[in-house]
Amino acid sequence: MPRTLDARQLAHFGWFLLIWGLPWSHAAMSAGTGIVGLAWVWQTVRGPRQPPRPPRPWVKWAAAWLGFEVLSLAWSEHLTPGWHMLRMQLPLLLLLAASRTAPPASRRTLWVLGSAAAALAGVLAFGAWRLGQGEALAPRDWTPWTSHIRLSLLAALGVGWGLSDPFPSRMQTWLVATCLGLWAVFLAVAGSLTTAVLLPAALAWGAWVRWKNRLPSWAWVGGIAGALALGAGAGAAVLRPVDLPAKPWAESTPWGNAYDHRPDKWLSEGGHRVHMHVCESEWENGWRAVSDVPLDGPRGSLRPALLRYVTSLGLPKDGATLAALSPEHVRAIEARRTNVHEARGMAQRLRELRFELEMWHDGGNPSGHSLVQRLEHWRAGWHAFAAAPWVGHGMGDFGAAMAEAYEEAGSKLSPDVRHGTHNQFLNVLVRTGMAGWLAWMGFLAACVARTRRLESRPLRVAAAWGWGVLVASCLVEDTLETQAGVLIALLALLPMEGSNDA
Predict the structure, then answer these.
(1) Per the domain annotation, does 177 fall within a domain?
(2) How many angstroms separate the CA atoms of 449 and 56, rounded?
(3) In the chain, how many domains are there?
């Protein structure tokens, strides 16, 4: 058997391992990357002699960008964090250089679809088992092995490629249907906002690719405009401020103390305003009449849960109300439930989203709320970039620069959630300034140029979808700060290689 064939088979095994290991195991991803690199070196050194081919432009730009990151360690005080991050990102350069060893696009699509479907089935089965054990699962608890964002990005790549393939195999069609079904169930039970955006986007992409020549342009424009208007209207209806209670508002409680009314605050629970009809001075006596659990105990205060739970009952928050609570409601407050009506999946996530936005509008602490936290991350990131705009703070000092930026910007975030920028473009600006950012943008521009030169229309379509997923990820995530994120970015870029000669 020719050595080059052996090297190609070894490379395909490595690609298979890293794609199928992506949602499950760091070890599998690392092993797959190492095998691909070994096969590439073997093929290059031991394969048949060929005229040397110059490095591709996108590989040159990737080397320039990562080389500048290495150089930035020269003005970093803390080297260890920088080397740790480079260990995450350097495999991207290796795999881009070895991308000619990747299997054909059709096989890659099958592997991505199979990997996503298996991961979705696994997390759904494990979540169902945990529910059967009596556990209460929050949306994030459904993805214990990888983040719901990475899992949704992997599923989006596979489904988008599968739906836009003009000549899908029977296996690919079956895998697309399976992945879509599992992904929809995952959306319903886990309430992932990433899935809520990417799943309909993948369906819309597939419909556009298949039917764009069958419908006139005005139909597509009208359909897109109508869908956006419908989505905006639904969002406005779901998130619009809750109406204030009818006047006149009671001035005093049954125990004779004054109510505190804050009509300027939007926070609501169960369709009622939280900061209306509140008399916190009576809570201690009212609560003591029905519970032996202190309002302010060693496990933390029950006051936030009490305030929201009683609001969801549509009752005033005073001592007389607390003293008349049923044992069932008392136990719910002691368990720190915030609403009398339990919600799961997407309904729970929408409820959390409303709370996040209303709390942020009222000037509350956004700590622990993934959407509004990002606004604080971005604000601190821009503050850090402005402090060193040309060459950045260096790879090693990124964490220190962000910590200082949070303090100087007066962020309300608690220290345990003062993370990175949650935006890859901003992340590069903070680490390496405009110099590194220009190299990063040169890499992306070279990839776009290569995509536009592809002769195969299906590959151009696949590359365009991969670009859409990658850019969406980089706008709201530090995509290249995790091993899974680096591999997602690589998979999104692979169609530009156009390798179908395996």
Answers:
(1) no
(2) 11
(3) 2
Model pTM above 0.70: yes
| Pairing of the two strands 272-273 and 296-297 | unpaired
15 closest CA partner among 460, 485, 487: 487
CA atoms within 13 A on the CB side of 71: 13
**Which of these, 403, 397, 442, lies nearest to 57 by C-alpha position?**
442
How far apart CA 99 and CA 102 sit, in angstroms, is 5
Alpha helices per DSSP H over 294-423: 303-312, 319-323, 327-334, 345-361, 370-387, 398-408
Residue 302 maps to a domain:
yes
Is position 36 within any domain? yes
| 104 DSSP 8-state letter | P
Q: Does the structure show a pLDDT above 50 at 4?
A: no
- Give pLDDT, residue 252: 95
Residue 227 scores a pLDDT above 90:
no
Which residue type sits at 269?
E
Q: Contact at 8 Å (CB) between 333 and 309?
A: yes
3-state secondary structure of 297: strand
Q: How far apart are CA 108 and CA 297, in angstroms?
A: 55
pLDDT reported for residue 283:
96
Cβ neighbors of 355 (< 8 A, separation 6 or more) are 267, 269, 369
Return the closest-CA partner of residue 325 out of 317, 58, 441.
Answer: 317
The residue-averaged pLDDT of 466-478 equals 92
- Which two structure tokens, joined as six digits, stand for 272? 């009622």
Per-residue confidence (pLDDT) for residue 280, from 0 to 100: 95
Contact, 102 vs 8, CB < 8 A? Answer: no
DSSP, collapsed to helix, strand or coil, labels residue 260 as strand
> Which structural domain range is residue 291 located in?
245-364
> Quick check: is 460 in a domain?
no
**Residue that finishes a domain, picked among 364, 381, 410:** 364
Q: Tokens 């990839």 — which residue? A: 447
Determine the Cα–Cα distance for residues 56 and 125; give it in Å rounded to an integer.
44
What span, in angstroms and rounded, lies between the C-alpha atoms of 388 and 430? 7
